[in-house]
Amino acid sequence: MLVKGRKIAGRGEAMTAHYAFGPLEDDIIIKHRLLTRTTTTRGEPPLKKLQKKFTSFALEIEKDADNYSDCERLAKAFLQELTTFEIPLLKSKAVIDANLREKENFNELNDEINRQILQAQADIEDLKKQLEESKIERQHKEECEAIRKLIAIQPPRSETHKIIRELEKEIAMLEAENTASSRTLELRKKQFALLLHVVDELQNTIEEEQKTLVEEMRLALDEQKNGFEDASGGSEAMAID
């Protein structure tokens, strides 16, 4: 039995309720009462009424007196009460069956939703792959288009071959000129080397001639000096005489 108490609080304080059972015990008790139908919000509980009807019928049968009519009346009352008690049970069973069917439908719907979610996820992954492939394909198309535009602005193949032939001729002429220039440069190098050799020989000759000339001039001066000395000696001898 649920015992409820109240604490009278002072002014401004909240009133607190104290229960003999916790929420879990309350749920168990309420579930048991609903299953056994031992309590009701109005009147006597159906199970107790059925029990009383059955007890009255059983006691009446056990009497030795001629009470067939009373037994029949109590049996009808018991059966009527049993039918009354059975109707809510049938309703409850119907509700339970409906709830079970609803639960099965819900489970099927939940499975279908999960399957659709998985399918949607797989579709999303496929679409992602297709998107990546489309991006790559579009990039390739853009590159091909850029190459096509680049090719389109280039001159025709015949004109390109003509330009290549002209360039090859020009390269051959430049190579020939380069060869001639190389030969001319080699010749100029040899001539310049010969010129340097001649200049060097000429310079040596001039230096030798200059040395010889200087030596001759020195000898001439020495002879002239000796001649002056000899002349001065003869004049002095004549003066002494």
From TrEMBL:
Keywords annotated in UniProt: Coiled coil, Nucleus
Protein name (Swiss-Prot/TrEMBL): Tho complex subunit 7/Mft1p
GO BP annotations, alphabetical order: mRNA export from nucleus; mRNA processing
Domain of life: Eukaryota
Organism: Actinidia rufa
Location(s) in or outside the cell: Nucleus
GO cellular component, one term: THO complex part of transcription export complex
Major site of localization recorded for this protein: nucleus
Pfam families per the UniProt record, alphabetical: THOC7
Organism placement in taxonomy: Eukaryota, Viridiplantae, Streptophyta, Embryophyta, Tracheophyta
Family named by the database record: Belongs to the THOC7 family.
Coiled-coil positions: 96-219
